[in-house]
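Page 37, continued from 36.
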């Protein structure tokens, strides 16, 4: 059975924001690809709800999300089984979310406790900007309420991004500033329950991207 775009949008597999609904009412030709400076401003102001996918990509993402939920029960289940190949502890509950055995309780301290992959559904950004995701078995501290980062968790992420990404591209040709990162607060996460950090990179050679991601391709 073929499901129309409208049917998927009328019963979306996740909550649509006002920004999402405005995008779905527009076309790719009307869409403004977000520039590096746009992204800097959005991240600096913590206006993460303004990160947008192209209308055609958002429609495909809605349909993909619905199909994945039908096949795997949830998007986190699919990510764990197919992309990360991690098995949650049997003590995990719907309230706790997936929990994992870790080799080091300190986030980012052991490379076996995180995995870097290309984002399968990146935002609508200018050519040359790539979107990758760092998935963690460890949980990062969040503040009560909307679940934003604490000072401690922000520092842990900043230090990891510096040594893993920023230091690696220092001295490469192209734009001087090549790395930005952000972490969605809990209410904005389209893959809730699985800890992850978004990293945006520009003017970085493909071989460096593959070095970070282990050569894993994006899957749509």
């Amino acid at each position: 059975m073929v499901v129309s775009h409208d049917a998927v949008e009328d019963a979306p597999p996740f909550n649509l924001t006002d920004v999402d609904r405005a995008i779905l009412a527009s076309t790719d030709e009307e869409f403004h690809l977000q520039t590096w400076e746009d992204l800097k401003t959005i991240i600096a102001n913590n206006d993460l709800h303004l990160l947008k996918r192209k209308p055609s990509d958002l429609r495909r993402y809605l349909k993909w999300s619905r199909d994945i939920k039908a096949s795997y029960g949830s998007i986190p289940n699919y990510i764990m089984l197919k992309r990360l190949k991690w098995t949650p502890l049997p003590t995990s509950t719907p309230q706790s979310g997936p929990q994992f055995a870790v080799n080091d309780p300190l986030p980012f301290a052991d490379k076996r406790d995180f995995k870097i992959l290309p984002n399968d559904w990146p935002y609508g950004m200018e050519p040359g900007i790539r979107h990758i995701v760092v998935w963690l078995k460890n949980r990062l501290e969040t503040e009560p309420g909307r679940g934003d980062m604490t000072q401690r968790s922000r520092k842990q992420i900043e230090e990891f991004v510096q040594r893993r990404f920023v230091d690696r591209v220092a001295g490469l040709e192209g734009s001087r500033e090549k790395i930005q990162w952000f972490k969605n607060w809990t209410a904005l996460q389209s893959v809730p329950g699985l800890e992850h950090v978004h990293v945006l990179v520009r003017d970085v050679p493909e071989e460096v991207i593959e070095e970070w991601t282990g050569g894993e391709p994006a899957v749509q």
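Residues 117 and 216 are 6 Å apart (CA to CA). Flag for discussion at group meeting. The chain has seven helices and four strands.
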